[in-house]
Amino acid sequence: MARPDRAVFRLPLVSLVIPVVVLILTVPLATVGAWWALLFVIPVVALAYVAVTSTTADRTAVRTRTLLGRHRMTWDELDGLEFRASSWAVAVAHDGRRLQLPMVRPRDLPRLAAASGGHLDLTGSGTTPDAGTGDDTGDEVELDEPVDEVGTGEVPPSTAQQAGRVAQAE
User: Fold this and answer.
1) What is the C-alpha to C-alpha distance for residues 34 and 109, in angstroms, rounded to an integer?
2) 148: phi then psi, degrees, rounded to nearest 5
3) Which of 8, 25, 70, 126 has the fewest Cβ atoms within 10 angstroms?
């Protein structure tokens, strides 16, 4: 039963099919000789990745689990979220520390904000520089500039909106 005060982001269970298919396709090569048996490592690592990789958010912190270990960032440490080349969110701390949040995509932000208990502000207030002076408050983490893909010199509005901070911690 899902807990309303916690959000868990992970790959869907159907993703377990991929390592099984890779295992089946590996068997003919892996049984040829002793060194070929090392190919069995590939589906085992893929299975571990699917089973382990996740992000959990609750009212106190956001936690990630990957094959390389566990990481945690409290909401008080969080300065904001950003999205770069990866489609997964990156949590940025006040001290500049960055934590990739596996499986958290832009469409998951409302669930993440609800699980934070009000610590994550999705309204965008205080996330843009003052339009009148062009001054930057220093609280904003800049993303890569949007790319003009068609050579017209104009950036599509949806891309331009993604160029700024997505969410800011209160």
Assistant:
1) 48
2) -85, 105
3) 70
Pairing of β 98-101 and β 89-93: antiparallel
State the amino acid at position 94 in one-letter form: H
Q: What is the CATH number of the domain that holds 81?
A: 2.30.29.30
Domains contained in the chain, number: 1
156 domain-assigned: no
pTM above 0.90, yes or no: no
N-to-C CA span, the chain: 30
* CA 160 – CA 149 distance, rounded (Å): 12
Please write the tens of the pLDDT for every residue from 8-33.
999 998 999 999 999 999 999 888 88
Question: pLDDT, tens digit, for every residue of 104-159?
Answer: 998 998 999 889 888 887 776 544 444 444 444 434 444 444 443 444 444 444 44
Element (H, E) at 67: none
Burial of 61 (0-12, 13-18, 19+ CB in 10 A): middle
